[in-house]
Amino acid sequence: NNIACLFDLDGVLVDTAVYHYQAWKALANSLGFDFTKAQNEQLKGVNRMRSLQLILEWGGVQKTAEEQEALATVKNDNYVGMISKMTAAEVLPGSVELLEALRAAGIKIALGSASKNSGLILERTNLAHLFDAIVDGNHVTTSKPDPEVFIKGAELLDTDPSRCIVFEDAQAGVQAAIAGKMKVVGIGEPENLTGADVVVKDLSAITVEEIKALIN
Ligand code: B16
Ligand code: MG
């Protein structure tokens, strides 16, 4: 009667959202336009190519598939330069404590991230050893809100989706968890997390007992 926890990375365990924003903003500016913070919210949890397509739509700019690949590479090179300097100090409050408490309680943990850079981030922030399985943008073909990333995590942890709890900061991620028939703990502001079973400000605000109680 095991349960499992599936963690999003960006915005839940670490604050890489600020680096994504800076790198996308620099790219948009180089193309002669800008986008708002509210628009940036829509990029959270959404994969790299889909994010680029949304930004190009906002700027009213059309690019060929080949040009889009090149632009995504420019953004990613800039972003990787930023995250290469990350340290464990950039892990969000409560993350390490909760992951360790879950492990101590015998609860399995997987990563479920849209990012293709999760390996570098987990290594830089010293979180990698806390996971039983990693599923990221390198292992899936569809982007959140499709549940693929979480379904794969549940499979790797040998746990039925109905006994999995997803931790997400993005609306697309909450939708992915619901589509996967899993419970969802939203991290952040309730208005950005419609459908979550519970919303907390960060991982310091929830306990192993409260998590277990989400599964009946
Ligand atoms: P990359 P998550 C997501 O990470 C980010 O929220 C999203 O903004 C980003 O576009 C996506 O990863 C892809 O990242 O360009 O590094 O492959 O929240 O699913 O952990
Ligand atoms: Mg996220």
Short description:
The protein has 216 residues and is of the alpha/beta class.
Structural features, described:
With 216 residues, the chain is an alpha/beta fold. Helix content is 42%, strand content 12%. It contains nine helices and six strands, in the order E-H-H-H-H-H-E-H-E-H-E-H-E-E-H. It has helices at residues 17-30, 37-41, 48-59, 65-83, 95-104, 118-124, 148-156, 171-179, 208-212, and strands at residues 4-7, 108-112, 133-135, 164-168, 183-187, 198-200. Helix 6 (118-124) links the parallel strand 2 and strand 3. The longest helix has 19 residues, at 65-83. The termini are close together. The mean pLDDT is 97. 1,6-di-O-phosphono-beta-D-glucopyranose is lined by residues 8-11, 20, 43-48, 51, 76, 113-117, 137, 170. Substrate binds at residues 8-10, 24, 43-48, 51, 75, 113-117, 144.
Radius of gyration: 17 Å
Bound molecules: 1,6-di-O-phosphono-beta-D-glucopyranose, magnesium ion
Counting DSSP H or I runs of 4 or more residues, the number of helices is 9
- The helicity comes to 40-55%
N-to-C terminal Cα separation, in Å? 11 Å
Uncertain runs are none
Main β-sheet description = 6 strands, parallel
**Kindly state the mean pLDDT as a whole number?**
97
Strand content: 5-15%
Counting helices, strands and paired strands, the structural category is alpha/beta
H/E element sequence: EHHHHHEHEHEHEEH
Shape: globular
Strand order of the largest sheet: 3-2-1-4-5-6
Number of strands: 6
